[in-house]
Amino acid sequence: MNEIVLEGNGLCKTFTNGQVSTNVIRNMDVAIYKGDFTVIMGTSGAGKSTLLYMLSGIDTVTSGEILLNNKRIDQLKEKEMTTIRREDIGFIFQEPNLLDDFTVFENIAMTGYLMNKDRKAVNELTNTLLEEVDMMDHQDKYPSQLSGGQKQRVAVARSLINQPGVVFADEPTGALNATQSEAALDLLTAVHMKGQTILMVTHDIRAASRANRLLYIKDGKIDGILQLDQFDSGSLKDREKQVFDFVMSKGW
Ligand SMILES: Nc1ncnc2c1ncn2[C@@H]1O[C@H](COP(=O)(O)OP(=O)(O)OP(=O)(O)O)[C@@H](O)[C@H]1O
Ligand SMILES: [Mg+2]
User: Fold this and answer.
1) Model confidence over 25-73: pLDDT tens digits?
2) Whole-number Å distance between alpha carbons of 32 and 5
């Protein structure tokens, strides 16, 4: 069995608006394995983003515990949590959220500089990542000069600059067209093949087919897990069918 890198035990999340409380995540146990490309699926409002934000320490838990590399992170002080977010966690959102006044190169390198790492080492890794995401020729451009797909590729590179234990992605292809989505998924697949652990929320069967493990969320719990073989583009159609049949069987 693979090593667990991230674990949630007895996780609960309740949102309260005035008199009304909603239990979005209900006593959920979840384990994410090192090196896996795990996807979370479920109907809209099922609590996928909420779960992702809790597991990555972006949002608090109502109760339960979260362990990252066997260390509890759910009760850390803000300062310690900021360090973990910068050091151990990469995040890719639906919108790239790049900083408009900084170049592509700077957008990627900045998080590295914030860690007080050796600038030269950060610059070298930035160059490597620029190549990986095929943005070498655009490194001096500003975000406003890029297409949506290019911006998202920069966001992927930025999420990797501190060589995080886990990269989290919430609908990373949600704002992209079909061609751009495919390119972004190819990139995430390549990153995964190099050993990076990825946890991604998606609505998209094609995107989910890149994963090797699928968690289906329903009523605040994990309602089913689909284990897939390692991705191989030759079997994409079969994988898509497997994922489709599985989520349909869960009432998606
Ligand atoms: N900050 C909040 N305050 C109150 N309710 C919230 C808050 N965030 C989420 N919710 C509620 O929690 C539930 C789950 O939301 P969440 O965003 O996790 O769903 P999701 O599965 O990511 O949905 P989608 O697929 O539409 O993105 C929804 O009913 C939502 O309205
Ligand atoms: Mg969501």
Assistant:
1) 999 999 999 999 999 999 999 999 999 999 999 999 999 999 999 999 9
2) 6
Lowest mean pLDDT among 5-9, 46-50, 184-188, 231-235: 231-235
Q: Which residue has the least CA distance to atom 9 on ligand 1?
A: 50
pTM of the model: 0.96
Residue 24 alpha carbon to ligand 1 centre in Å: 8
Domain count, the chain: 1
Residues whose CB is less than 8 angstroms from the CB of residue 222 and which lie 6 or more positions away in sequence, other chains included: 28, 29, 30, 215, 216
Distance 44 CA to ligand 2 centre (A): 7
Q: Could you tell me the CATH number of the domain that includes residue 205?
A: 3.40.50.300
Domain extent, residue 86, equals: 36-60+78-249
Taking the chain, what is the end-to-end CA distance rounded to the nearest angstrom?
Answer: 29
CA of 19 to the centre of ligand 1 (A): 18
Residue 107 in any domain: the answer is yes
**Is residue 47, in this structure, part of any structural domain at all?**
yes
Let me know the angle formed at the C-alpha of 103 by 100 and 109, rounded to the nearest 5 degrees: 110
In a domain, 112, yes or no: yes
Rounded Cα–Cα distance for residues 23 and 27 (Å) = 10
User: Tokens 């592509």 belong to which residue?
Assistant: 104
How confident is the prediction for the chain on average, in pLDDT? 95
